[in-house]
Predict the structure.
Amino acid sequence: MNVLLVDPPYRASYPPVGLLKIGRFHRERGDAVTFVRGLSAPAAEKTWDRIYTASLFTFQWNTVVRTLRFYGGSVADPRRDLFAGGPLASLLGRDLGAAAPCRPVPGIVDSAEKIGLQGGDIDTLLPDYSLLTSPKDYPVLEHAWIASATRGCSGKCAFCSVREVDPRCVEYLPLKEQLDNCRQSLGERNGLVLLDNNVAMSPFLEKIAGDMAAEGFVKGRGTTADFSQGFEPALFAGPEGNRRADILASLPLDPIRIAWDFSGERDIYEQAVTAFAERGFSSFSTPLLYGFSDLPEDMYLRLLRITELEHELGIAIQAEPMGYLAPFLKRRPSPAERARAWGCSEGEVRRFEELLKKFRTREKGDGEGFSALFGKGPEDFRNRLRRRE
Ligand code: SF4
């Protein structure tokens, strides 16, 4: 069987791990497997027994549909042989099948029967990184290995689609085999990026930290580790939070990613950042959700407190504002739509987003600089957004 794997041409930080597991599955069956990134004319000119395409966010709809249409003529029957998997295909499979002839595969490919073949749980296979002809397509691989110590998430956050895309909750996965696989295909790396959705919730956190340490990811050894999806602040507040921070204290985490989604979480966010700062960590990154159930002033208050914490604790926090995207939306909301939700003008939204960009380049912990840019209080901030009309 000749099999083509396609990662659509959107911006992606990480390689499509699920697709590379399907690649291993087919290679172990004795099939010939080729991987391409984007729209490859030479690949589309051939006829394949099967083509598998990946997908990520629903707002990348146009790119995924374009990719499926591009490769639709490269299989005998796209409704049978052109497979569409990944988060977008899980959430919008029916629409996808209507927009471009294909065979959507919802959820995780945890049995070969889901793709019409006999075999075991494809998701438990190791991704075959040797299929990547140009690992430079995924810059993270130049400095780090990637792995998962857990899968799914038991949380039920209203704005998150993890439970639809991966409803299982696997609370421990050994790292050794995954890292040996990375070592073999990619060579030695000093960095480790973990893709876990909510690792701190795992009752096996200590075991996971031990697995990382056993592989050399310990402070002082010139290595770094990054839980790329970050930590929920509530899990690092109070005595239980301190216990978790103690478990992670010897790991070379850089940065520490702690989300601050709602202004009402101020107290737990502060506790979480302080718990890590007291254990010697100084580099933080904080995703800040906006446009969900908040107003522009909420962002002002969070950015102000972040600046104060930097000053008080002697740390640096990279703020990562993230506009809310409804899980089923097929494109990013326009400033006009965001303005309607906030009951303000489009100009205010544009100015708000410009200011957020400026926050990234400010001097850390500089309260005066913050006031000069954002105003002396939430009302002043709101007036500044209006003044530029
Ligand atoms: S904890 Fe994180 S991964 Fe889990 S449901 Fe909430 S946002 Fe999603």
